[in-house]
Write a structure and sequence with these properties.
Layout lengths: L1 H23 L13 H26 L4 H12 L12 E5 L4 E4 L21 H10 L5 E8 L4 E12 L4 E8 L9 H26 L4 H12 L13 E4 L4 E4 L21 H10 L3 E10 L4 E11 L5 E7 L1
Antiparallel strand pairs: 1-2, 1-5, 3-4, 4-5, 6-7, 6-10, 8-9, 9-10
Helix pairs in contact: 1-5, 2-5, 2-6, 3-5
Length: about 325
């Protein structure tokens, strides 16, 4: 069942990327200066993925996974085989500040190894550079050559690292991109961001719920602790929420008063019962978009919102996040 959901997600995102590529080839009245190119777009996607998870990890490591071994178990459970791009890229890894790999999303054999002195074919000590950026809060990318698990070729990689505050860990992710030609409109970029955010959380949380936090009380505490500090998109209007298939709001990153209440009958002024639509999508096919009007926490105005939801694998929960 896990493999089926993962492949469905990847097929969905791959189709979205194909549509974006086709649209980018059409005549567009927007000047290139007004729309980010592909490299800048993927940088924003990766930075959002790393920052959101580093923020959520900080919160749960402070109150739930407080010991070294429990933190290691959590990171490996959440990150192993977790992807947010439609191929085998878009994975995460964690090194401590001495260079020891704590968790790796694609190559589990690296876990426990000291990677401090590893360098690429051109002599770049990329682990050292990434850890230095994380420790010194340098929000920049490190470029090096590494094996792309999608193509099995050594390619240029752009990687980004952030410290998980309160720990000596650096969370890293990146992308492989040889060309810098397409322009992706802001809406399509934000759709890729929110889809990646929801999928990463759904995949990682599903694994955590299966093996580490198996009771509803533990899971609720985890969802709320993780979701509360996570804010993203340029105006911080991005947040995550968790609802179960009975309509009970488990966690809400923008409105904690909803937590513990049944939101099944919520609807916008046009009569869109958006929670019901989300639950129907979560049941079949397990993911999808819902459009409705909702209060934007950044502007406090009722605005049109596009939300991507995905069922948290192996549970009766769904996670959602969206863009106004």
């Amino acid at each position: 069942m896990k493999t089926k959901i993962k492949l469905s997600f990847c097929t969905y995102i791959l189709a979205s990327l194909t549509i974006i590529f086709v649209n980018s080839c059409k005549e567009d009245p927007v000047s290139p200066q007004e729309t980010p190119n592909e490299t800048e777009t993927y940088k924003q996607i990766v930075q959002t993925a790393v920052h959101n998870n580093a923020t959520g990890f900080e919160a749960v490591m402070k109150s739930i996974f407080t010991g070294n071994q429990s933190r290691t178990d959590f990171l490996r459970t959440y990150l192993n085989y977790n992807r947010y791009f439609p191929d085998s890229t878009g994975y995460f890894y964690v090194n401590d500040f001495s260079g020891i790999n704590i968790a790796h999303g694609t190559n589990l054999s690296l876990q426990g190894q000291n990677r401090w002195d590893v360098k690429d074919s051109k002599g770049t000590y990329y682990i050292q550079n990434l850890i230095s950026n994380a420790k010194n809060y340098v929000y920049d990318f490190v470029i090096y050559y590494y094996l792309n698990p999608s193509t099995n070729l050594t390619e240029t990689k752009h990687a980004y690292a952030e410290a998980i505050k309160g720990t000596s860990y650096a969370l890293t992710s990146g992308f492989y991109l040889e060309k810098d030609v397409k322009r992706i409109p802001d809406l399509e970029k934000n759709k890729l961001i929110v889809t990646g955010v929801a999928h990463t959380f759904a995949f990682g949380s599903g694994a955590v719920c299966k093996t580490l936090l198996t009771t509803p009380a533990e899971q609720t505490d985890f969802f709320r602790t993780f979701a509360e500090p996570v804010k993203f998109l340029p105006d911080s209007s991005g947040y995550i929420f968790v609802v179960n298939l009975s309509g009970l709001c488990i966690a809400h990153g923008a409105n904690k008063t909803l937590e513990g209440t049944n939101v099944m009958e919520l609807h916008d002024f046009q009569g869109t019962y958006f929670i019901k639509q989300m639950i129907n999508l979560a049941k079949n096919p397990g993911y999808g978009y819902v459009e409705y009007y909702y209060t934007n926490p950044a502007t406090n105005l009722n605005e049109q919102k596009l939300v991507y939801i995905e069922r948290i694998q192996g549970t009766d929960y769904l996670v959602g996040t969206g863009v106004y």
